[in-house]
Design goal:
Layout: E1 2-3, H1 5-11, E2 14-17, E3 21-26, E4 33-38, E5 43-50, E6 54-61, E7 66-72, E8 77-85, E9 90-97, E10 103-111, E11 117-127, E12 131-140, E13 146-156, E14 160-169, E15 177-186, E16 192-201, E17 207-216, H2 219-227, H3 232-244, H4 253-266
Length: 267
Amino acid sequence: MKVDKNSLKEAGTYIVFKENETVELSLKDVFEEVTFTLVNGVQIELNIYEFSLKTKLNLFINEDSKLNLHLISGTEMSLDILGNVKNNGILNIYFADLKTANTTLNSNVILLGDNAKSCFKFSSIAKENIKKLYNIGFNHVGKKTTSDFEGYGVALKNGEIDAKGISHIEKMSIKSYANQMVKVILFDKDSKAKASPTLKIDCDDIVANHACAIGSLNEDHVFYLRSRGLSEEESRKLITLGYLLPIEDNFDEEGKNKIKSFIKESF
């Protein structure tokens, strides 16, 4: 289902999903704040590829429901996401942030119910003085909850990527799992990146880990590819694509085409 601007204006800013469906939604020049609620047992694929300059999304995932949220940024944007996931609910957020435009994204998901799960995965390109800022948080409240934060980025030509992850496993959230991983390639000496993983653990019976890697391209990999006949520029581009393209596996055909187009523009 494709939701156009007129129907959104008539429906207001509160949308309830009552049956399984795939929805394409444009928020460009329409709303500053939208609330989505999934009733029990619903599975939704939600694609949002256009945004207002500043947007807030409220996501309420009821019991046994699942929302896969697919985001692609094509313009400068500031996006706030607040998620609430109940028993056995799942909220997966996939963000392809590959356009030459400033981005600020703040996301916090509360894993309120037992067995609630959520992930946030992004791929990002920052170049030509562009800044990409991500603040990604999870609050584990229920038992046996799961959170996963993964980010892959490339900074070049004075671009900057700053990724912060905060996973808070609260006192009674036993048997929970939290993971954070951020990897950023600095394509040249003028580019910048920072990763700040934070784990706040108030419960003993859990598993939590984090990892981050920021640095230039591995010159051994570049040398290997050049020995196979590629130029240095081609080698660097190929390695970079290996960082960014996996995000497309979480998108439909239209989304994959947009992602490939944005990457092609950047390199």
